[in-house]
């Protein structure tokens, strides 16, 4: 093979490998989501699609941080980018199964000026960024809030997805436990983390008016978690596990 031919072949082969990985992940995704997309009737007669006999919530997907707020970091890897990538996958899967969904941000931007409340945001950017995430849920008529974040801890040994839930709606804990359970089943069986009730330190969950959870998808400070979170195929699996759990909680008997 000539040198020029080889140089042209490398990008093709890289693209082929990526396509193969994503195809495999997509197949897994469909199996996971569709399995949980069907709910059993109370009389046990048959399985029916959620859209035919239950209700699905309007899911507000909120990728944490954005813009000048990069969140946690590990070298050149920024939390805000991981959050957005997984949120985009969550939104795409929602579209696949017919679950209504909206994202608070679809680009690398902060949300403090989302509604143009002030002329000068100096010293108030973080507060208004958080306030607008709460407001977005209300303005868009959201039924469930899903925050996507990435964890960090000084000790690198800690890893694994963990879910926090709002104390303001009793359904929040059920959603959190469903996501935590799905993460053990489909992502990391050895993850023994339990869901936690959010304190006032988690602004959005503390002020949520609807069922609300925040998913810390992994530890950017842990090498193994970091490797997974940088893998598009794993992020897709993570998104599939999250959506399958939310859809399952919102099915049948009036949903939320």
The CATH architecture would be 3-Layer(aba) Sandwich
- In N-to-C order, the SSE pattern is HEEHEEEHEHEEHEHEHH
The main sheet orders its strands as 6-3-7-10-8-9
Count the strands?
10
Please report which band the strand proportion falls in: under 5%, 5-15%, 15-25%, 25-35%, 35-45% or over 45%: 15-25%
How large is the count of helical segments?
A: 8
Q: Major sheet: size, sense and barrel closure?
A: 6 strands, mixed
* Oligomer category: single chain
Portion of residues within helices: 40-55%
Stretches with pLDDT under 50, minimum 5 residues: 37-53
Mean pLDDT, all residues: 85
As a whole number of angstroms, the C-alpha radius of gyration is 19 Å
CATH topology: Aminopeptidase
CATH superfamily heading: Zn-dependent exopeptidases
Shape: globular
- Assigned CATH class: Alpha Beta
Q: CA-to-CA gap between the ends? A: 61 Å
**Number of structural domains:** 1
Structural class: alpha/beta
